[in-house]
Amino acid sequence: MRQILLITDGCSNVGLSPIVAAAHAKSEGIHVNVVGVLDHGDVGELGATEIEEIARAGGGLSRMVNTRQLSQTVQMMTRKTVVQTIQLAVQKELQQVLGNGSIEALPPEKRGEVVRVIDELGESSGLRVALLIDASASMKPKMAAVEEAIHDLMLSLQARQGKSEIAVFHFPGSRHGDDCMMDLAWTDHLNGVHSIFPKLQMGGTTPTGPAIMQAVDYYRQGEAGDYGRRGRHETDGMMGDYVV
What we know:
Rossmann fold; 8 helices; 18% strand; globular
């Protein structure tokens, strides 16, 4: 299963629309979750609307939270999207087999079995998360909370039965650019994430759309092997062999 987790506090202002980019990610089988980080102000109506629309276009979740709630929210969104992905795949299979994609339409005993399988798949399925960190100037006072949230997310992923991998990007890559910089390539050694934060140079524009597109390209380039082949067919045969 593949996710992009975007942590930001405001509106994009450079490059491709992040809503268009999120829709492209969804078409590639990648869910886009967005956490809008509040501090002593507000991202404003325009920013809040954009955050919601990015997640909607990307088939993911969006939440507006203050820094104290950030850690819990990041973990919740990652896990909830995993469950939703599995539920959609299971319902698709039920529709193919039974002509009805609703879990609720099953007899009670069968429904309970399907729910149990979904729970097991949520813990045992392989998971990749591309983490996109907004490093624009306004995020600087919030970065300590972001670091703490990512630390807790790493602990949560390590507790899963299935293999969990993460890649980390920040944007902008340069102060006046519309680029995105990769800080950490795919790894299941999750403790290495902490080393990136002292190196982040805060400031510049907010090229959210280009950052999402770069994460999608990285998924595509990095999954030419077996994992990529599973990813492109990740919803096939879930109930039969528990492969996601």
